[in-house]
Amino acid sequence: MTVYLVATASAETTTAACDYLLEKLTPDDAVYVLSVEEPDVEEATETAFEEAQTRLTEVAEVRTIRRRGQPAQEIVALAREIGADEIIVGPRRDAPGGFSTIGTTTRAVLSTVEVPVFVVPRDP
């Protein structure tokens, strides 16, 4: 069994994560979809959660989780709590297409965790 953590701040990130995971998932796997709510930041949480539930539940177990706080800290904490084998994130909340930059949350996660982190590109 592989445990995946998808940390998302947008439906676009969730779509890209689903595309990536559909190639890898087995029925024994578990997918946790995390959205961290920050004060004064608009969220697309429901759309992101619906996307993951619709596309991935036929293949693996999917759980959706909302937390409040600092995104990188919450991502790292949940990854450790669930024993994540891999973390999937977007390049940054407001990134244009591709990987032109990586945001502070993604950088903090990359430099903190001991498991692989896959950064999904946004459509150009």
TrEMBL record:
Pfam families: Usp. Coiled coil: none annotated. SUPFAM superfamilies: Adenine nucleotide alpha hydrolases-like (SSF52402). InterPro entries: Rossmann-like_a/b/a_fold, UspA. CDD domains: USP-like. Residues 16-121 form the UspA domain. This is Universal stress protein. It comes from Salinirubellus salinus.
